[in-house]
Automatic annotation (TrEMBL):
PROSITE patterns reported in the protein's UniProt record: PAS (PS50112)
Bilayer topology term: Multi-pass membrane protein
Subcellular location: Cell membrane
Pfam families: sCache_3_2 (PF17203)
Domain PAS: 208-249
Molecular functions (GO terms): ATP binding; kinase activity
Biological process terms in GO annotation: phosphorelay signal transduction system
Protein keywords: ATP-binding, Cell membrane, Kinase, Membrane, Nucleotide-binding, Phosphoprotein, Transferase, Transmembrane, Transmembrane helix, Two-component regulatory system
GO cellular component, one term: plasma membrane
Stretches assigned to coiled coil: none
Annotated protein name in UniProt: PAS domain-containing protein
Keyword Metal-binding among record annotations: no
Transmembrane segments: 12-31, 168-189
Length: 339
């Protein structure tokens, strides 16, 4: 990923996050919707089965010599109107009196019936003659309270699955929308980062910062950088020595959070100069222990990849000990004389 900019990396991380989140949330939502769908379908089938079991026609037919003749056409019609895949009326022993497939009439019902025979309606998800289905079984009770038959009503789970699958496009649409929003946000963020970093990537910035910090701390002059608001954001180790500032060795090259000049206990004359932002060359300032030559210019960066005109970032203030400078000049002059 060395060729990727910060915005590209953030967008890639965003895409991965959205995809993972969409899979997680989509799966959780689907499972929850499925469970709720099964529960709602079971309740609906229970209501249908109860309504049929409570019908006087069904109670009477269940005690007749030929319940199939009296109920087959009736249950087919009710099943069509109730949107049920099957409705079976059963004998107390579980023998089918009615079924959508006439070939199944007279055969034993394959689901649970014990609870219904005890007078307790039940619901379940089970495999039957029409395949896996959500079904309800309720007792048919005569006026004396005797269970004279059972009613089973159900919907194939494949039919329910089709309804659930219809929700998937909404989840996918939400995921695509989030990705589009992320792409727009990443594009805007990328433009901002390119302007802020002059088009350099994170590795390039780290490398350049390392070189710059090493270079700034290796020169004999003290360097202080201030932003456009007049706050100090950097000073070199040498500047700390000359100006009596706290040493910041080992603290990432003396990079500071933006700090007001008045909070650094600078010599008053130098503090006033830095606050003014004036451009000066070798201005003499006398402190308690030194005579310092101070120069100050606007900090104008080299135009970067994304801009052709550089905007001043603040000021650069250099501080030189005049005695050290005089000594250096004398050494240079002596060397030239000896040559």
């Amino acid at each position: 990923m060395g060729g990727w900019g910060m915005a590209g990396r953030l967008f890639l991380a965003y895409v991965v996050f959205i995809v993972v989140a969409a899979v997680f949330v989509g799966t959780a939502a689907f499972v929850d919707t499925r469970d709720r769908g099964y529960e709602a379908t079971a309740d609906r089938m229970l209501s249908v089965a109860k309504a049929i079991a409570d019908s006087p026609l069904v109670v009477t037919a269940a005690q007749s010599p030929d319940p199939t003749l009296a109920l087959q056409a009736y249950t087919l019609e009710v099943g069509e109107h109730a949107d049920a895949d099957f409705i079976s009326v059963l004998s107390p022993s579980g023998i089918r009196w009615t079924h959508p497939d006439a070939a199944e009439i007279g055969r034993t019902y394959t689901g649970q019936t014990a609870g219904a025979l005890a007078g307790r309606p039940l619901t379940e998800v089970a495999a039957g003659t029409v395949g896996p289905s959500v079904r309800a079984v309720v007792p048919i009770v005569d006026p004396d309270g005797t269970v004279v038959g059972l009613v089973a009503a159900g919907v194939r789970s494949s039919s329910l699955q089709t309804a659930l699958d219809a929700r998937l496009p909404a989840t996918l649409a939400l995921t695509v929308a989030l990705l589009l929003v992320g792409a727009i946000a990443a594009g805007l963020l990328g433009r901002y980062l390119r302007r802020s970093t002059l088009g350099w990537g994170p590795e390039e910035l780290a490398q350049r910062y390392g070189y710059a910090a090493s270079a700034l701390n290796s020169v004999r002059e003290g360097l202080v950088l201030s932003d456009r608001a007049g706050r100090v954001v950097y000073y070199s180790d040498r500047a700390a020595q000359l100006l009596g500032l706290p040493s910041r060795q080992g603290s990432r090259g003396a990079v500071l959070p933006p700090t007001a000049i008045d909070d650094l206990s600078l010599p008053p004359g130098i503090a006033a100069l830095m606050q003014s932002g004036r451009t000066v060359q070798d201005e003499l300032h006398v402190t308690a222990s030194r005579e310092l030559l101070v120069s100050q210019v606007s900090a104008v960066p080299t135009p970067g990849r994304t801009r052709t005109r550089a905007t001043p970032l603040g000021t650069v203030t250099t501080v030189v000990d005049s005695a050290e400078l005089a000594a250096r000049l004398q050494r240079i002059e002596s060397r030239h004389r000896s040559d």
